[in-house]
Description:
- The protein has helices at 41-51, 135-152, 160-168, 173-183, 188-196, 200-215, and strands at 17-23, 33-38, 56-61, 79-90, 96-111, 119-126, 184-185, 222-223, 233-234.
- The protein is of the alpha+beta class.
- It has a five-stranded mixed beta barrel.
Amino acid sequence: MSSFNETSLSAHDFSGKVRLFPLPNLVLFPHVMQPLHVFEPRYRSLLEDALSTDRLIAMALLVPGWERDYEGHPALYPTACLGRVTTFHRLNDGTYNLLLLGLHRVRIVRELEPRRLYREAEVAIVEDCYPNYPTPSVAALQQQLREAFRRLLPCLPDAQEQLDQLLATDIPLGVLTDVISFMLEIDLARKEALLSENDVFRRAQLLLQYMDAAATGKADAKFASDQFPPKFSLN
Length: 235
């Protein structure tokens, strides 16, 4: 997990145009760090362009049926996550390992005409929305999330201390929902629904529904990895 100030992005830093990195099996959330192994030529080009400029990449989820047009322009879900490359290592074969920090939800406004090997889009940043819910309700949701998280928490010896610190920290409700949503292994459509919901109160309630269903055996859910942070994801 990142510190909150690391996820800041000023208007000066962001033009509204993003490099799209679509994957069929990963939903990135703000405030979390995702390891990636980049090997396809188009995404190596994308990364190199990002590293030479703003280090920003937008991770998007491919809509089911992407296999028919993977090398072209398969459909994307309209909400993506803008991330910043925090560190990288170029391997001898020209591929890369990197860490991508989730910054903000973004809504894809329109895809741009292709100019490079990879896809680009105009996007709008989507801020978390905290309606005027009573403070006790927010505190109660935070507590419910922590309790549900602990019930589902597997035995992770290498990560237990970090996870205990997370649960003990008084972090904002929106951040807590994003971190748990990222770690919870549920079907991708549900993860995308959590990413797409910018009303923090509703997002927390939706996440609780998923975790409660998992705890009662009504849904198949577990944690995305037996490690925290997670292993590298392939492009």
